[in-house]
From TrEMBL:
<dbReference type="InterPro" id="IPR023187">
    <property type="entry name" value="Tscrpt_reg_MarR-type_CS"/>
</dbReference>
<feature type="domain" description="HTH marR-type">
    <location>
        <begin position="39"/>
        <end position="170"/>
    </location>
</feature>
<dbReference type="GO" id="GO:0003700">
    <property type="term" value="F:DNA-binding transcription factor activity"/>
</dbReference>
<feature type="compositionally biased region" description="Low complexity">
    <location>
        <begin position="1"/>
        <end position="11"/>
    </location>
</feature>
<dbReference type="Pfam" id="PF12802">
    <property type="entry name" value="MarR_2"/>
</dbReference>
<dbReference type="InterPro" id="IPR036390">
    <property type="entry name" value="WH_DNA-bd_sf"/>
</dbReference>
<keyword id="KW-0805">Transcription regulation</keyword>
<dbReference type="InterPro" id="IPR036388">
    <property type="entry name" value="WH-like_DNA-bd_sf"/>
</dbReference>
<dbReference type="InterPro" id="IPR000835">
    <property type="entry name" value="HTH_MarR-typ"/>
</dbReference>
<feature type="compositionally biased region" description="Pro residues">
    <location>
        <begin position="12"/>
        <end position="27"/>
    </location>
</feature>
<dbReference type="GO" id="GO:0003677">
    <property type="term" value="F:DNA binding"/>
</dbReference>
<feature type="region of interest" description="Disordered">
    <location>
        <begin position="1"/>
        <end position="37"/>
    </location>
</feature>
<keyword id="KW-0238">DNA-binding</keyword>
<keyword id="KW-0804">Transcription</keyword>
<protein>
    <submittedName>
        <fullName>MarR family transcriptional regulator</fullName>
    </submittedName>
</protein>
<dbReference type="InterPro" id="IPR052526">
    <property type="entry name" value="HTH-type_Bedaq_tolerance"/>
</dbReference>
Length: 171
């Protein structure tokens, strides 16, 4: 009887060839699932932002490391070359080359410490201070323009992230 039913019923269609296994979709940007993925995404975003902000600078021939050293002297006041090397996390000989360029360009001056004449202090000149002010103004303006396009909730999120990023850099 089963043979009779089988022959009377239309033949079942042949099975379709197996499709290749589907690749799981990549997580949406900003929605990484593992700590490693989140770390990578954050690192890339911070690097891109820093690179873009570095492009907003005063018209000058200074390299990024020269500008950074100059900015430290404007922010912190007089510094020794050794302290400046520590702040920039470079070797003293490397910082000495940077300082020499800034002195030759007229953006830094060397002076002797009043208490210890053997100690050299570095101070930004008026032109050095002007470069730092203009660069900061341009960077702040660039970022403020982008902040203005964000929603209040997004700005609040960035304010919280700023505090968290500050904690990460202080560790």
């Amino acid at each position: 009887m089963t043979d009779l039913l089988a022959s009377a019923a239309p033949a079942a269609p042949a099975p379709a060839p197996a499709a290749p296994p589907a690749t799981p979709p990549a997580p949406a940007r900003g929605r990484r699932t593992t700590l490693a993925e989140q770390s990578t995404e954050l690192r890339l975003a911070v690097m891109r932002l820093a690179r873009r902000l570095r492009q907003e600078r005063a018209e000058t021939e200074l390299s990024g490391s020269q500008y950074s050293a100059l900015a430290w002297t404007v922010s912190e006041g007089q510094l020794t070359p050794g302290r400046l090397a520590e702040l920039e996390r470079v070797t003293p000989p490397s910082m000495n080359r940077t300082v020499n360029c800034l002195v030759d360009a007229g953006h830094l001056v060397r002076t002797a410490d009043a208490g210890d004449g053997r100690k050299v202090l570095l101070r930004a000149t008026e032109s050095g201070e002007a470069i730092v002010r203009e660069t900061r103004r341009r960077r702040d303006a660039w970022l403020a323009k982008r902040f203005a396009a964000l929603t209040p909730d997004e700005r609040e999120t960035l304010a919280k992230a700023t505090m968290i990023l500050g904690r990460l850099t202080d560790q």
